[in-house]
Description:
Elements: H1 7-29, H2 31-35, E1 38-40, E2 48-50, E3 56-67, E4 72-77, E5 88-94, E6 108-116, E7 119-127
Parallel strand pairs: 5-7
Antiparallel strand pairs: 1-2, 3-4, 3-6, 4-5, 6-7
Amino acid sequence: MAFNFDFDNQMEIHMKTAFLATLLALSMTALPPAMAANEQDAHGDHHKVETTATATHAGRGKVNSVNLQAGTINVTHDPIKSLKWPGMTMDFKAHDPALLKDLKPGDMVDFELMKMDGAYHIVKISPSAN
């Protein structure tokens, strides 16, 4: 009985197996960055938000106080669905402090927020139409 070992066929099988193992390993290293697309907001670990570099989020609320020197405003806002925030009272920094110059406590406002330097800043604000 003659035993015939096909060395070339065995080498081809080993090379295909090594190639597939390498391909699988490389594809798994690409998963964590793709899964990291959700970003945690500044209000707790139970809020997950998908954002892009230029995403803005619309809000409506009542002005409680304005600090023109600091460029900040305190607002009690309605829920902001795009950020999955409930209604709450918050301080916001204005991207341009001049946005706040005509506002006073008690004003109802519509505003837009954008994430900059790890915090949400007001980039647009105006008295509410209603």
